[in-house]
Amino acid sequence: MGKVSKILVIGSGIAGLSFALRAAKRGQVTIITKKEASESSTNYAQGGIATVWSDEDTFESHIEDTHRAGAGLCHADTVDFVVRDAPARIRELIEWGVEFTRRTGKREFDLHREGGHSARRIFHAKDLTGREVERALLVRARENPRIRIFEDHTAINLITKQKLSSFDHPGVDEVLGAYVLDRITGEIHTFVADVTVLATGGSGKVYLYTSNPDVATGDGVALAYRAGATIANMEFVQFHPTCLYHPLAKSFLISEAVRGEGAVLLNRAGKRFMEGAHPMKELAPRDIVARAIDAEMKRSGEDCVYLDIRSKGPAFIRKHFPNIHETCLSFGIDMTKEPIPVVPAAHYQCGGVRTNLHGETDIQRLFALGECAGTGLHGANRLASNSLIEALVFSHSAVQRASTAYIGKPRPRIDIPKWDPGKAQEPDEGVVVSHNWDEIRRTMWNYVGIVRSNKRLSRALDRIELLKREISEYYWNFKVTGDLLELRNICTVAELIVRCAMQRKESRGLHTTIDYPYLDDEHGRKDTLVRRTRF
What we know:
Shape: globular
Largest sheet: 7 strands, mixed
Low-confidence stretches: none
Helix content: 25-40%
Number of strands: 17
Strand content: 15-25%
Number of helices: 15
CATH superfamily of the largest domain: FAD/NAD(P)-binding domain
Number of domains: 3
């Protein structure tokens, strides 16, 4: 039968860990994670977590800000659900030991304001919020005897009832667990569970330039799509406007909070260019700022623009952004004395595996949480710092649903076979993996980036389909490795992004196309859905 537990969680960021901590009260939880448990997108989140907290703020204001950023595609029930439940989830984090920054000499929390927000409502731990959240949750998870963490383990495929039998009734399939590769030993294990949770984070590594860690290869979306789940709104990829531009800097993000505290964007001539782009200038939603930077770089022919916060003074900068300041210094840039060179980079996946308000997908016993989920909260563009709170709210709701519907409930016994490698050989051409990996990411960056066109999307799809065939042939002929599985997943996710983008005949939120430069509210205010129909 393999390794059996009540709950299988794939991923160890805020979504997976917070779900596991709550679910452990109901039974044994197994967490599998590709590298070290702390290596997640959560760990790299600098900005913070949005929630209404002060008397000067209101739920209605946060709801309105979220809808405004989402450009007409946010699900109203989801937005209301998340915003109103958020304060309780923040209190829970504090109880779990997360140490948010407080105002000097006071007990009140030091709330930031970020782009798109009309009030100060961002909880943060200096400029390393994600790292502090990950630290606190991991400590509790490792202390819990009902939680087992398997590091260096990668999910290959979900095990579904339909694939194991002649059971063929769309809409009533269910997930039984997953086949999982031990990346150290090369062994493939069968993990069986009452409930399987995808909490794998985003897919930034599909693009050449990204703020995401190396683990962000879209695994959850690819796993769910191959299993037959519905995927939503993958065309909406958020490009963070300000990643450090330096030949030796790898994916280092300059937090939204820097602009929130007064930083301005300059071109090489030292002139601001956001004043004519949006009434909120540098505090405009991310898609607008990213497009403005992209346009300025194309207009000037320069490789970057500059973010200037010198007006706040050295003491303020060092106090509020110690990690960003130290990291920039390590690359020879003193942000207290000079502007920071920045460029946009793929940052956040607003779409994902479609779920309801309990994090349930349309396959029974399969949940999706965090960035890999398409809950409807973000619409066509995520409001800054709404992602971590989304993960917390939905993990809480998902545990409640899983406990009442699935965990410990009897079901017919199904024999699950061990992984069959067939006649697969030892891999002998690693260059195939590395070359195709690079080609997919360059294709996506050049043809499916901040601004798109029909011609670019068509070219991208042609190339990705060819690469998909090459990768599939390699997958079936050779034993699987971690690198091959990630390549297979980014190819799947790249195809989904392109296919969703080709369906949307308008420019909305994060999806901008020169062939349809207008907003089409008559036909465009609906989710873009894709589902695998052939198995």
